[in-house]
Amino acid sequence: MHIIMVKKRLSDGRDCDKCARAEELLRAQGVWDCIHEIVWALEGDPQSPGIVIANRHNIDAAPFFIVQDGAGRQELHTSVLKFIKELVALQ
Questions:
Q1: How far does CA 68 lie from the centroid of its chain?
Q2: DSSP 62
Q3: What's the gap between Cα 54 and its chain centre?
Q4: Do residues 6 and 66 lie in contact, with contact meaning Cβ atoms separated by under 8 Å?
Q5: Phi/psi of residue 43, nearest 5 degrees
Q6: pLDDT averaged per 10 residues in sequence order, the chain, 91 residues
Q7: Neighbours of 9 (CB within 10 A)
Q8: Angle between helices 80-90 and 17-28 (to 10 degrees)
C-alpha cells in the first residue's frame, strides 16, 4: 500500500490552514508515518502536480489522500477524520 497526501501550498509559501490542521491530526493520532508521499497543489500554478491530480479526480479542496494498493487500484479520501479512523483501525 502506498499513501499519497495532496496538500495545498499558498502563494506566500505556507501550507493552507486545513492542510496544516490535517497534518497535526495525523501526527497526534500517530499515523503521520503512514503517509509515503506528499504532492503539492501550488496556489496560482494550475500545472503543479497536486492541482493536476485534483482535476483528474474532480476534487476541488485539499487535503485529500490517494491510497494505492499493489494491484494498481486507487481509493480517494477527502475526509481527513474518516481517513485517520481507517488508518488507526489498520494499526
A1: 13
A2: S
A3: 10
A4: yes
A5: -55, 130
A6: 95 95 94 95 96 96 92 91 85 68
A7: 20
A8: 20
| CA end-to-end distance (rounded Å), the chain | 13
Cis peptide preceding 63, ω within 30 of 0:
yes
What pLDDT is attached to residue 88? Answer: 80
Alpha helix positions (H), 29-79: 49-56
Q: Cell 482535476 sits at which residue?
A: 55
Which set of grid coordinates corresponds to residue 73? 487500484
CB 74 within 8 A of CB 68: yes
User: What pTM was estimated for this model as a whole?
Assistant: 0.92
What torsion, rounded to 10 degrees, do the Cα atoms 39, 45, 57, 81 define? 50
